[in-house]
Amino acid sequence: MEKYRNDTAKKRFLRIAQIAPLYESLPPKLYGGTERIVHYLTEELVRQGHDVTLFASGDSITEAKLIACVDEGLRLKQNCIDPLTYHIIQMQKLSTQVHEFDILHFHTDYLHFPFSNMLEIPSVTTLHGRLDIPELQDIYHTFPYQNLISISENQRLPIPQGNFVKTVYHGLPENLHQQGDGKGDYLAFLGRISPEKGIERAVEIALATNTKLKIAAKIDKTDSTYYEKYVKSLLDHPLIEYIGEINEQQKTEFLGKAKGLLFPINWPEPFGLVMIEAMACGTPVIAFHNGSVPEIMENNVTGFVVNSVKEAVDAVSRLAYLSRKKIRGVFEQRFTAARMAENYVDVYHFLLNNTLKNVPRSTIPILNKPA
């Protein structure tokens, strides 16, 4: 590990453009996993000495140079009917300054592909969402030379034709959260209330183990019907407490005091940021075997990977036998913002060293295993 860091330190400092989605500020005021990661990456790159420019909403807080593409994050902006408008403005602002950068790092899904496809300057796109959507097949067949970063190996399976350069796992600032004692005598659920996140399973597990469940989650407008029809009635139980959305500072206590985090997903989760947030607090996770879970979790170390509600119920009784100190140690070894940034800097230099003018990027070799 020390050699890796020393080798990275020898590389020259770069002029980097980070292009963020505009739905939330950086950092987001409440929910917003993608924007949170882009924020941590941006700040760590600045800390490491790189010249970073951030294209984001104007209410973002950053040590980088901020180019505001809209006055505030679009999710909380009143009367915003067409959010795509501001993303097009963002591309135009970037186009006027593109010559000022060594590399462009996009976090805007495929929106920029027609623009970045015409550039000679290297660019890379981190894909933060699910890729098992039929229409994406046509996108990645149409743009075969876009350099892509996956956030888990599992995430890339639906689009084998994608030009993936590397998998880079998310990371959090090492001192963002502290190890908790888990003496709150409750299970935690953190994230969104939506069908794929498995809130109904979480309630079922809590009731089956006679354990209090605290739910800190947002309800998107798109999930309001699901909430009203299937979830609202489940919250009317003395063991179930719905808290609502919480901010980053509140997570330390919420997760740190929990005896365990329930992550009962029923979809191919691309990463699952909440798992490493729990690890940072030393809190074990009970996660369903789906998507990225087997890559992020160390079964019987950072928690338990299960395949059914019954297995999850059995796992609750074993949470106390796991070492919270060891869980925190896994976080420090694998999932810090510093490690994430170093891995991305490796990607930047790799692309700068291998991208030649007028050479299709499909001829560029790929980096190997995820880091």
TrEMBL record:
This is Glycosyltransferase family 4 protein. Gene3D superfamilies: Glycogen Phosphorylase B. The lineage of its organism: Bacteria, Pseudomonadati, Bacteroidota, Sphingobacteriia, Sphingobacteriales. It holds the Pfam family Glyco_transf_4. Residues 31-139 form the Glycosyltransferase subfamily 4-like N-terminal domain. Residues 182-319 form the Glycosyl transferase family domain. SUPFAM superfamilies: UDP-Glycosyltransferase/glycogen phosphorylase. It comes from the Bacteria. It comes from Sphingobacterium chuzhouense.
